[in-house]
Design goal:
eight-stranded mixed β-sheet
Length: 178
């Protein structure tokens, strides 16, 4: 059984990064990322036109955490508290002890090994603390960097699906393989 209780928000750490709850002060960085479609070419998300949309996003995501719908973290360097990206575990399936992994890095932070380090820690949390048996990630077939990241983290290609008119690759990691 999945252990969903985020009453005490789980702050995680890796060697160089702190993985913490989204905060109001993250709104500007989220707005800057979300206001330029080039930052998320392969993901169907809205383009923000004002800062209040980023504030609302933070509020909605934190409310979902309180309701145990998902867990979403801000990624920051340990030596400062400035957000460089986000990572989440969501779309929980209690019956199958399964959930989905979501992640994104803000401009200027890709290609530095950040996500490999952070996702390794988050996956460990998912298997050991949430008691997940399966973690899946969906990525666009053209998103070569995301596919390479998932393979580096030992995710296995499962299948391709069509969702909302888009093709998506599903990659999976099982606890017993971790």
């Amino acid at each position: 059984m999945i252990g969903l209780d985020f009453t005490h928000f789980p702050v995680l750490e890796s060697k160089y990064y702190k993985i913490r709850q989204l905060q109001e002060k993250d709104a500007q960085a989220i707005f800057e990322y979300q206001s330029n479609k080039i930052n998320f070419l392969y993901v169907n998300m809205p383009v923000y036109t004002n800062l209040s949309q980023a504030r609302k996003y933070i509020e909605e995501k934190n409310q979902g955490v309180i309701q145990n719908k998902w867990i979403i973290w801000a990624i920051t360097k340990k030596n400062n508290n400035h957000i460089v990206g986000t990572v989440s575990i969501w779309n929980f399936d209690q019956k199958c002890s399964k959930a989905e992994l979501g992640y994104g890095l803000f401009s200027g932070n890709t290609g530095k090994g950040i996500m490999t380090e952070v996702l390794s820690r988050v996956i460990l949390y998912g298997f050991n603390e949430l008691h997940l048996e399966i973690i899946e990630a969906y990525t666009h077939p053209s998103n070569k960097k995301s596919i390479a990241l998932l393979k580096r983290l030992n995710f296995k290609y499962k299948m391709q699906i069509e969702e909302d008119g888009e093709l998506l690759n599903i990659f999976r990691q099982e606890k017993k393989e971790f």
